[in-house]
Amino acid sequence: MSEFNNIANPASSGGDMTGFSSPDEQGVCVPDRRPLSLSWMTDEMLTETRKLWSRRYERDISTEEAVEILQNIKRFAEMLLERSES
Q: Which residues contact residue 12 at a Cβ distance below 8 angstroms, ignoring those fewer than 6 apart?
């Protein structure tokens, strides 16, 4: 079982928030599988995100924070794509 299955809502973890969370993509997980809204995140992507941003923040970031960072990057990319199509 991957560490992804232990994800809690980042807003309730009491840690520093890395951005805004979306009500439709909270880290509520069903045992042994990801929610469909997060199925695009692979274990490798989460591991690499944690490594990269842990160096940037100069502390270990949690899986919850990595999920939030990836969600924010995805939303940003979607916004850029939407703007380029108009």
A: none
Task: Give the rounded distance of the alpha carbon of 85 from its chain centre.
Answer: 26
User: CA-to-CA distance for 57 and 73, rounded, in angstroms?
Assistant: 17
Provide φ and ψ at 20, rounded to 5°: -100, 140
Global pTM reads 0.61
Question: For the chain, how many residues are written?
Answer: 86
State pLDDT tens for residues 28-46: 443 456 777 788 899 999 9
39: Cβ contacts below 8 Å, ≥ 6 apart:
none
* The residue to which tokens 């990801």 are assigned: 34
Name the amino acid, one letter, at 9: N
Angle CA(64)–CA(5)–CA(48) in degrees, nearest 5? 55
